[in-house]
Amino acid sequence: MKKLGIILVSHVPDIARGIPQLLTQVAPNVSITNAGGTNENDIGTSMEKILAAIEENKASELLAFYDIGSSKMNLELATEMTDKQVHLYDAAFVEGAYTAASLIEADVTLSEIEKQLASLKIK
Known InterPro entries for this protein (predicted)? Predict the structure, then answer.
């Protein structure tokens, strides 16, 4: 397993579960965890689910991607409750995660990955 991993957070449980299926096609050795929906699996986010996904990830350093609004807010809260280093990216959700996963798989450095993600930044 790689040192860098990925966490995905979406308001929709099916989206959070589906994107890892795509990413594992290009990055089978990257630990990818996800958190989708509220605790009741409704549309929304859950800080508890996000924290669990962070802790379940086998990597010691995580690149975090999210869809909208409260996903980022809850990710920020969860990062304060873990010892893992978590980097949040304001990048296009699917494209950013796919780019990061493929580059982690290819053993590209974090600084180089961040250069690639810069062009995918959502403003």
Answer: DhaM, DhaM_N, PTS_EIIA_man-typ, PTS_EIIA_man-typ_sf
